[in-house]
Amino acid sequence: MVGFKLDLIMEAHPDVLYAYNERYDQTNTAKSLLRALRLSGPGGVLWLNGDVVFDPAILHAVAPQIAAGESFVCVNTASVGEEEIKYTVDSDGMVLGLSKTVANGLGEAIGINFVGPADKDLLIQHLDACADTDYFERGLETAIAAGLRVCPLDISRYYAVEVDFVADLKRANEVTRER
User: What is the pTM of this model?
Assistant: First the structure.
């Protein structure tokens, strides 16, 4: 999914198929994900936030859930910051709440997510109902309230840094240099 600086991204990786949100400067991630899901073929969709630097081993760790078609969000239970997307679970251990305002969050959603083929249409409906300013987590949260089952996959043993601030970038650079 591209919008801002799309030409730089597409030139750097010309063999990738892209979806374009021409309203990227007027909408938030819910509408970008909606566009990508509508353009995707049959099957589930794995999406990764572009501001997350992570251990590639995470992709191997989530492969069984993808193969099984099970919707999930990757979570880190090591710490929960004020700015992060936090989550809670229901009595079955599935995601119940998912937002920056969740009280008593169990950890943070790191921005690596998968919607299974059986769940994609429901998520599309809920993303479509989101406001232009909503993050995609709002669509997930309302879809969960409507019956979507999303597993929180704990990836705490791997590194993952969401780069929002200079300190985050420094941390991401340090971690990647060590590897």
Answer: 0.92
